[in-house]
């Protein structure tokens, strides 16, 4: 389930601009019989593009005695945000 700020107009525009700049990146890791892009490489590639477009994200663990999850908040410099959690 996702939550978001009252408006995501600026965030949506910045996301479109970001997506126009993203190119395929090399698959630099191997595991389970296939190649993939490591999280470290992905973040290093995306960080300058996110910053250029006024975007950022943070992730935090979430859960209780019986569940484990991850909360992600995707933010724009305007203060707009989208939050989603997985368990």
Descriptors:
four-stranded antiparallel sheet; two-stranded antiparallel sheet; alpha+beta; 2 helices; flat; 87 residues; 31% helix
Structure, described:
This protein is an alpha+beta fold. The protein has two helices and six strands; from the N terminus they run βαββαβββ. The protein has helices at residues 9-21, 39-52; strands at residues 2-4, 29-31, 34-36, 55-63, 68-76, 81-86. A four-stranded antiparallel sheet has the order 1-6-5-4. It has a two-stranded antiparallel ribbon with strand order 2-3. A hairpin with a 4-residue loop joins strand 5 and strand 6 (81-86). The protein is flat and about 45 Å long. 6% of the residues are buried. The model has no long low-confidence stretch (mean pLDDT 96).
Nearest-angstrom radius of gyration?
Answer: 15 Å
Query: In this structure, how is the largest beta sheet organized?
Result: 4 strands, antiparallel
Average the pLDDT over all residues and give the rounded result.
96
Multimeric state of these chains? single chain
- The proportion of strand residues reads 35-45%
Q: What gross morphology would you assign?
A: flat
Instruction: Give the SSE string.
Output: EHEEHEEE
- Please give the alpha-carbon distance between the first and last residues: 11 Å
The neighbouring-strand order within the major sheet is 1-6-5-4
């Amino acid at each position: 389930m996702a939550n978001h700020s009252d408006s995501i107009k600026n965030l949506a525009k910045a996301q479109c601009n970001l997506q126009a700049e993203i190119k395929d990146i090399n698959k630099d890791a191997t595991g389970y019989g296939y190649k993939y892009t490591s999280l470290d490489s992905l973040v290093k590639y995306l960080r300058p593009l996110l910053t250029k477009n006024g975007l950022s994200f943070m992730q935090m663990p979430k859960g209780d005695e019986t569940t484990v999850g991850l909360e992600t908040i995707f933010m724009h410099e305007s203060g707009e945000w989208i939050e989603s959690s997985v368990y």
